[in-house]
Amino acid sequence: MDAKEISKKVRDYFFEVHGQYAVFGFRIEDVSFDKKSNAWKIESSLLQSVLDTEEKRVYYEVIIDSQGKFKNVKKVAKKKQFQPA
Questions:
Q1: DSSP reduced 3-state for 7
Q2: What is the rounded average pLDDT of the residues 51-77?
Q3: Does residue 82 surpass a pLDDT of 50?
Q4: Which of 15, 30, 60, 66 is 20–30 Å from 23 (CA)?
Q5: For 3-76, CATH number?
Q6: What is the rounded distance in angstroms from the CA atom of residue 4 to the CA atom of residue 22?
Q7: Residue 57 and residue 28 in contact, taking contact as beta carbons nearer than 8 Å
Q8: Cα–Cα–Cα angle for 65, 68, 10, nearest 5°?
Q9: Nearest one of 67, 9, 14 to 45, comparing CA atoms
Q10: Which pLDDT does position 84 carry in this prediction?
Q11: Are 44 and 27 in contact (CB under 8 A)?
């Protein structure tokens, strides 16, 4: 599976779990593949309601093995964004 397929799989998962409104505000923040563990790490975020603002965005880390099986989904704290000078 490539990064595009993995990203779609994560999006579909959150759509199924949280409903259509989560997908409205859903965003893939980062995708990386760890060769050592042979797994994908996807950082994503979503709004839990169409009325939520960016400050209420919820962040998740998802681990999927190379076969496309979900290994872990957990809520994480927002990472500090790069602030241009």
A1: helix
A2: 90
A3: no
A4: 66
A5: 3.10.450
A6: 19
A7: no
A8: 100
A9: 14
A10: 44
A11: yes
Using alpha carbons only, give the angle 62, 68, 71 rounded to the nearest 5 degrees.
Answer: 40
Q: How many CB atoms lie within 10 A of CB 22?
A: 19
Judge whether residue 63 has pLDDT over 90: yes
CA atoms within 13 A on the CB side of 80: 3
Q: Rounded distance, CA 20 to CA 6, Å?
A: 19
Distance CA 20, CA 66 (A): 27
**Residue among 76, 78, 60 at smallest CA distance from 17:** 60
CA 24, CA 44: separation in Å to the nearest integer? 13
Structure tokens at 1: 């599976």
Contacts of 2 by beta carbon, 8 Å cutoff, 6+ apart: none
- pTM for this predicted structure: 0.82
Q: What are the extents of the domains in the chain?
A: 3-76
